[in-house]
Amino acid sequence: MKKRLPLLFLLLGLALVARSLLPERNKTDFDLAAFGRLPVVVNGRVKPVDTVARTALVVLQSSQSIAAPDETKLTPNEWLLDVLFRSSRSDAYQHFEINHPDLLAIFSLTPAEGRAKRRFSFRQLEPKIDELQRQARLVEPVEVAIRTPFQKAVAQLYANLGLYIRLKASLVAPDHQDFLGELLTYQKNVTAGVAAVRAKEAGQPHDPALVAQMMESGGRFSRMGELAYLLAVPPNDGESNTTGWKKVGESLLDSFPTGQINPAIMVYAGLARTWKADQPKEFNEILRLYRAQLERNFPQSLVKCDAEARYNSAQPFYNAMILYVLAFLIAVISWLVWPVELGRAAFWLLGIAWGLATAGLLARMWLEGRPPVTNLYSSALFVGWSAVGFCLALEYIYRNAIGSVAGGLVGFATLLIGYYLSLGGDTLEMMRAVLDSNFWLATHVVTVTAGYGATFLAGFLAIIYIFRGVFTKSLDKATSDALSRMIYGIVCFATLFSLVGTILGGIWADQSWGRFWGWDPKENGALMIVIWNAIYLHARWGGLAKQRGLAALAVFGNIITAWSWFGVNMLGVGLHSYGFMDSAFPWLLAFAGSQLLCIAIASIPLAMWRSFRA
Amino acid sequence: MNPLVRSVRDFCVSLRLTVILLALSLILVFASTLAQVDLGIYAVQEEFYRSFVAIWQVGGIFIPLPGGYLVGGLLLINLLSAHIYRLKLEWRKAGIQLTHSGLIVLLLGELFTGLWQEDFQMTISEGETKNYSESFRLYELAIIDTTDPKMDEVVAIPDSKLAGAALVQHPKLPFRVATKAYYPNTTLARRDAAALSPAAAAVPVATRGVGSSVAVTPLPLTYKMNEMNVPSAVVELIGDEGSLGSWLVSPHLGAPQTLSHAGRTWRVELRIARAYKPFSLQLLKVTHDIYVGTDLPKNFSSRIKLTTPDGRDDREVLIYMNNPLRYGGYTFFQYQMDSSRGQTGLQVVRNPSWLLPYIACIMMTFGLLLQFGLSLRAFIAKRRATAKSVVV
Q1: Exposure of B19 in the CB half-sphere (CA atoms within 13 A)
Q2: Contact at CB, B26 and A492, closer than 8 angstroms
Q3: What is the pLDDT of residue A579?
Q4: A273 Cα to chain B: minimum distance (Å)
Q5: Could you give the CA distance from residue B361 to residue A444 in angstroms, rounded to a whole number?
Q6: Which of A404, A415, A564, B324 is least crowded, fewest Cβ atoms below 10 Å from its Cβ?
Q7: What strands, in cross-sheet order, belong to the sheet with B176-183?
């Protein structure tokens, strides 16, 4: 049994991966998965409806799981279908998250009335929307950096309500009983209707009923054109036209002179009718026909949308997170019992988790057509990926489970950070003009981020050194020497990556801003990591610090790295404006505090460490 | 050797000094980052890096720190003396030597950049041709002899001269220029004697030109990224037979003032300092791409026609983000754009030492790779040996 343990865990890990790769199954007769794969444009990118559904849910309520008031669970696509086509139901879904008590007071609501004590429905908020709007106007002139928590909550909820209202107006006129019927009538009458409107303008005899109908339709379409969130109508000339996507309302307004309604609009109106009337067969048939038509003009977009929907449902980083935790726990246990077998099991699990993270990164790169790091979210993924990569190498060389413990911990922690960063919305973003350079994203950004990863890893290894030394008897001479050498080796890599990455950043700045170095906060942050690593190396070479002191230095590197990764973004100044954030400041302080505590523990005299006590 | 000299030498070449200096530079960089929130980037560069002692203000407390020149200079001395003192050309040390040499190149490059780099901007509208760029911060008093209709003769006096010297004499001018008052940042308004603030009332009133009807209010200097200091000055022109009168000059006035003296005519204005180029750029077209359905910028580009008076160069170039034009020792970067008005803003940089960071980057990369690669090889060899001995 003991001998088979590694194999057992390996199979367990592989089973988890295999399960996540299975295609999503439809739990009703509606082909929800096929609906989720339809391409639309949001934020400048062609993406599957599935991504829109998931990110909208995450933005509204920080979670992808949602249930109807009668407690039936909804998939994100099911939820989105109700929002898009049957708002009479979705208005009752409790998906608006409100955490600030004063904000609830505005709506005269109590936490008890919300789902999970913090989520509320459109219907619950609707009576006081005017008051929210008034509050939002008061907040608007206040600079984002100096807003109070209440003001932030107001702005956030106001934006979320806006998102919901815009989603509702995306494909059909919201609250319209039979939009397909109206479109069919409109199409029949539009030529005569336009003629009637012209006649009226020219003061000639005309059919007033027809004119009224045209005016009504026009008003409705233009409201949809203003509100809609999705650009759902593909251009007629196919994939090459990347800027031709339109909102349903805009495309309908364009149809006045031609009398031709874009088929995609009819498709969505048809889907709306069959979804509301609960006709899965017809719904699926419309989807099939539309898909067949898209296959002709948008083959590549469809391939990417299919892959992205599959990526969404596989959740590689979520599964990697589970495996990292498992690897960490098993590796820690291996220090107590069965070091060889459990150590191997942990190593293999770490390997699977890392493989999964690698696959996830590669999928993102292919979807975006970009190097791995493009925003703060993907930097978290990559910091973890590079650190765990180093850990695998360390574990392969040393086989003492230290690499697995550190890898499991850093992998999990960085993915957790990534999870919180993903709450802001779609993580596959388009790049602002100055960042639109794959060469520099691939060189400067990747090396600097790998430098973050290595510096963090050195810090975590040092924490292992301190904790095992102070609190256990397990830090014998061999282990402490090995750990010190690991820390040193990783700091060497960290120095290499952060130095080269920082200078490459300077060269990029020289290419696009006209100066190599401008003492911009983000540049300073990167420089601080380089200087810190240089201090560690020189202190070691000069014999100014021994193992314990060097471990404490490495832990302080964690604070420096966290500062330059997130801290400088919280200042709200500088040119690197793509990653501004401020809400995580208390977390940064807490992290720095915990690291200082580790350093304080390290400064306990060696004679009092359990491992060194006589 | 004298023991004192020896201990000084030992301190100068010691790794302890290196670590102390690195730690000081870390604190300096951190302090300067925080200070940017209040001071802005330009003031921080001057205060913290182009200085020997920097004062860091935290709340009401002033903390003196060693400035960039001091720390950087001492690091350079430490590095150089350590290398000279311990100079042993060994293969084993080649990585370190190369890395440190790269660092020296980098530091020198920054020094040269600080000394020699010139920064200008060039704003051109579609169809317009320009052969000069303008400073970001500096102004000049331009006195332009327009007597000859075929050519203008320009005498430009930098604003630093106006601010510093009381009297400027130039061989091309038949009068001397005396600064009666200079204010580095001001605002102008129509003069209304009843409503003058005490600060504005203290400003001397010009006797000639439009100045007599204008009230000048001095303002404190601004360091904000999106604001500019706009100076005003009252200058007196003094000819051989005495004063010609005094003029208020300021970029706020918008138009130059004219004066005649001894049968010649001049235009006088305080304007943004210009640097003329031996070639001219004509803006043909600006393009501002955004991602569909958003206002997120995808690209900014300017199509430009580049010509030299001798006709040697006459071609079209495209400047866009991450793709500057390098020509005649200058680099032109896409910097700002107002596509609705068909206007582009180029940043113009002359930096003779721009290649040094590239060289430094290559040296340091290879140096570190060599150093760590050698250590790694030694480490692996050692492990193999131990593994073998364990097996045996």
Answers
A1: 17
A2: no
A3: 47
A4: 27
A5: 12
A6: B324
A7: B167-168, B176-183, B232-239, B242-249
Say whether A224 sits in a helix, a strand or coil. helix
The burial of B296, by beta-carbon neighbours within 10 Å (0-12 exposed, 13-18 middle, 19 or more buried), is given as middle
pTM recorded for the entire structure: 0.84
Q: At what angle do helices A208-227 and A179-201 cross, to 10 degrees?
A: 120
Q: What is the pLDDT confidence band of residue B264, given thresholds at 50, 70 and 90?
A: confident
Query: Which pLDDT score is estimated for B85?
Result: 80
A393 touches chain B (CB under 8 A): no
Task: Flag whether residue A517 sits within 8 Å of chain B, measured between CB atoms.
Answer: yes
Q: Does A505 touch chain B (CB under 8 A)?
A: no
Calculate how close chain A gets to B184, using CA atoms only, in Å: 25
Averaged pLDDT for residues B292-304: 83
Instruction: Measure the CA angle with vertex B33, ends B27 and B39; round to 5°.
Output: 120
Q: Which two tokens stand for residue B29?
A: 């960089």
State the pLDDT at residue A581: 55
Q: Does A99 contact B at CB distance below 8 Å?
A: no
ipTM over 0.95: no
Q: Which of A243, A437, A512 to mutate to test the interface with B (most CBs of B within 10 A)?
A: A512
Is B308 part of the contact surface with chain A (CB cutoff 8 Å)? no
Distances (CA, A) of A184 to A164, A227, A263, A277, A289: 27, 22, 12, 18, 19
Letter for the amino acid at B327?
Y
Of B26, B298, B358, the CB nearest to A532: B26
Nearest residue on chain B to A229, alpha-carbon basis: B293
- Written out in words, the top-level CATH class of the domain with range B119-129+276-350 is mainly beta
Domains in chain B: boundaries: 3-116+355-391, 119-129+276-350, 136-275
Q: Cβ B291–A516 below 8 Å, yes or no?
A: no
To test the contact with chain A by mutation, choose from B22, B119, B330 the residue with the greatest count of A C-beta atoms within 10 A, namely B22
The residues spanned by each domain of chain A are 179-298, 431-608
Greater model confidence, A408 or B92: A408
Q: Do B354 and A516 touch (CB under 8 A)?
A: yes
CB contact under 8 Å between A516 and B113, yes or no, is yes
Q: Which of B37, B321, B331 sits opposite A571 (nearest CB)?
A: B37
Mutate to test the interface with A, among B41, B105, B322 (most CBs of A within 10 A): B322
CB B332 within 8 A of CB B324: yes
CB A450 within 8 A of CB A497: yes
> What are A219's two structure tokens?
């008003």
Would you say the C-alpha torsion B37, B42, B47, B51 has a positive or negative sign? positive
CA distance linking residue A83 with residue A52, whole number of Å: 12
Partners of residue A525 in chain B, C-beta under 8 Å: 33
Name the residue with tokens 């990455």: A501
Residues B266-291, mean pLDDT to the nearest whole number: 88
Which residue of B14, B293, B321 is in closest CB contact with A434?
B321
Which residues from A are below 8 Å from B24, CB to CB? none
> What pLDDT was estimated at residue B299?
83
Q: For B115-120, what is the mean pLDDT? A: 83
Q: With beta carbons less than 8 A apart as the criterion, state whether B80 and B104 touch.
A: yes
Rounded CA-CA distance A453/A386 in Å is 6
Residues 261-290 (B) with a CB less than 8 A from some CB of A: 290
pLDDT along chain A (614 residues), means of 10: 84 89 82 93 92 94 90 92 93 93 90 90 93 93 80 92 94 87 90 89 87 90 92 88 88 89 93 93 94 92 93 92 94 89 92 95 91 89 95 91 93 92 83 74 89 94 93 87 92 92 87 80 91 94 89 95 87 56 77 94 89 76
Candidate from A514, A528, A572 with C-beta closest to B333: A514
